[in-house]
Specification:
- The protein is built from seven helices and 13 strands.
- The protein has 225 residues and is an alpha/beta fold.
- It has one domain: 3-Layer(aba) Sandwich (Rossmann fold).
- The strands form three sheets. Strands 2-1-3-4-13-12-11-8 form an eight-stranded mixed β-sheet.
- The longest helix is centred in the last third of the chain and has 12 residues.
- Pathway: Amino-acid biosynthesis; L-histidine biosynthesis; L-histidine from 5-phospho-alpha-D-ribose 1-diphosphate: step 5/9.
């Protein structure tokens, strides 16, 4: 009899993922957690919330949400007691994680919005639109629907049109040190990096939880990585 829990064949791997999959939204005191839970409920995909170390270690995928100011988000995350456990799972066990909006910006080395260091998981700097000559006279924040321009093939953007539309709300943008980490850009006065990835770490500047069918497809794709 096959021990499907230990077997590494494709069928048993699929069974384990289907039965034990848990998309886990990190609750460190900021971010619209319920919106993500609602999307995954509609998709029929198991999702929960991480408020403790045990919750982190039961996750198969992690979502790092974020709204508001960079330093506030970093302070809350650093004080949550979850960072060490998350970094162990991300770096040693290689489980997928995606930062969304300010959660994406937290992946950077630093931000012009604040003075605190970022996580540095995908080296880069968060810049202000107002400091870029091409966008400094545009309305702030960049708010509303905008198209993504795919730069490379990625499982995160499978089954999408060439330039899918997503909802944005931000005044700062990510500038990767290595353009090889950029999966997609968007344009607001100039092209900026809006979906990034390095190994199992992803970031997206727009709000999939507010982006209707496009957002649902992206979150479904993330669950299948």
């Amino acid at each position: 009899m096959v021990d499907w829990f230990r077997c590494e064949c494709l069928t048993c791997t699929w069974i384990r993922k289907k039965v034990f999959q848990m998309i886990t939204i990190i609750d460190y005191g900021i971010g619209n957690i319920q919106a993500f839970l609602n999307v995954y409920k509609r998709l029929g995909i198991n999702a929960g919330v991480a408020r403790s170390v045990d919750d982190i270690f039961s996750a198969t995928h992690l979502i790092l949400p974020g709204v508001g100011a960079f330093d506030q988000a970093m302070t809350l995350f650093n004080n949550s007691g979850l960072r060490d456990s998350i970094e162990k799972r991300v770096y040693e066990e290689k489980i997928p994680i995606i930062g969304i909006c300010v959660g994406m910006q937290m992946l950077a080395t630093s931000s012009e919005e604040g003075s605190m260091p970022g996580l540095g998981w995908i080296p880069g700097t968060v810049r202000a639109f107002s400091s870029n000559i091409s966008s400094q006279n545009l309305p702030m924040p960049h708010m509303g629907w905008n198209n993504l321009i795919k730069r490379t093939s990625t499982p995160l953007l499978k089954d999408f049109a060439v330039e899918p539309s997503f909802y944005f709300l931000h005044s700062y943008y990510y500038e990767c040190d290595d353009t090889g980490d950029v999966l997609a850009t968007a344009n607001y006065g100039h092209n900026f990096h809006c979906i990034i990835s390095r190994n199992n770490i992803y970031g997206i500047q727009c709000h999939p939880e507010k982006s209707h069918s496009s957002g649902s497809q992206l979150l479904k794709n993330f669950a299948e990585i």
